[in-house]
Amino acid sequence: MSVQSYINHKIPSQLTIHHVALLRPFNWLAQAWQDISRHPKASLAHGLTVSALLLVVLVITSVNIYIIAAAISGFMLLGPIMAAGLCELSRRNESGESVSFDDSLAGLRHCQSSLNHLAGILLGFSVLWFLISGLVLTLTIGDIAPPLDQTLWGGFLALVTPMQLTLYIVVGGLLASIVFVVSVVSVPAIIENDIPAVDAMAISFKVVTSNLLTMLVWAALIVLLTAIGFATFLVGMIVIYPLLGHATWYAYRDLVEKKA
Questions:
Q1: Which of 47, 60, 156, 174 lies at a CB distance of 3.0 to 4.6 Å from 242, suitable for a disulfide?
Q2: Is the Cα dihedral 233, 162, 176, 243 positive or negative?
Q3: Is 174 within a domain?
Q4: Which of 54-63, 67-76, 243-252: highest mean pLDDT?
Q5: Please, what's the largest Cα pairwise distance for the chain?
Q6: With 50 as the cut, is the pLDDT of residue 153 above it?
Q7: Total tally of structural domains belonging to the chain
């Protein structure tokens, strides 16, 4: 069985994948902003929680530039599953159900097993990135964990060649791209349909391959907004994270249709 045949086989028959316009991701962000406006306390509570967790992780790992990079990369890889509560908020708002921070967590119980499975898969990618990036650093500068003063003040670029730096970026970019392809709408697909994680990943794969240019725009927006969140010392992440989380639900709504 070919990869494409396997993917098509794993997609539930009641779901149809749509093609959308190139700039449609901006509409998802606009709809997400409306969700934040409707229930700011619940949405921003998610953003504040994620920002606080990231701050704790970065403070703990601040002694080493490699571990900081690994923590940020891990967040990029695990981000989709952490946004499950925000997708649930959008679903509840859409269906007229009660909307609160507690509701957004309690509403996920019916699909907890599939979400946990997906989280385990994404965690595996995160660990793989941690190990591979450590190997790259060992091969390039002879130290898996160069101290912060050496890499920051001494100049990380002075310790590696352009080829080595390119290798480091390519490895991380490749893993991040794979995660994006298999997770872009996996969480909302699981929440709405209570399907296995592998089936949800197949849906995401089909969505990306059917809307490649649009997904490139969406990926660029995610990277840009996440970078702004970190550049503002995580203050901006309090709003940016729920914005991306809610937008993920509307991306799913546009790209995947459930037949009656």
A1: 47
A2: positive
A3: yes
A4: 243-252
A5: 62
A6: no
A7: 1
Q: Examine residue 100 and state whether it is found in any structural domain, yes or no.
A: no
Three-class secondary structure of residue 258 per DSSP: strand
Residue with tokens 């704790």: 56
In a domain, 194, yes or no: yes
For residue 69, pLDDT beyond 80: no
The residues, ordered by sequence, that sit 6+ positions from 218 with a Cβ below 8 Å of its Cβ are: 25, 28, 184, 251
Q: What is the pLDDT of residues 4-46, one digit of tens each?
A: 776 777 788 889 999 999 999 999 999 999 999 999 999 999 9
For residue 127, give both structure tokens. Answer: 């660990």
CA-CA distance, 116 to 195, in Å (whole number)? 12
* Residue 197 forms part of a structural domain: yes
Integer angstrom CA distances of residue 155 from 65, 150, 164: 11, 7, 15
Rounded distance, CA 188 to CA 164, Å? 38
User: What pTM did the predictor assign?
Assistant: 0.88
The angle subtended at Cα 257 by Cα 254 and Cα 260, nearest 5°, is 145
**Residue 26: domain span:** 3-95+107-258
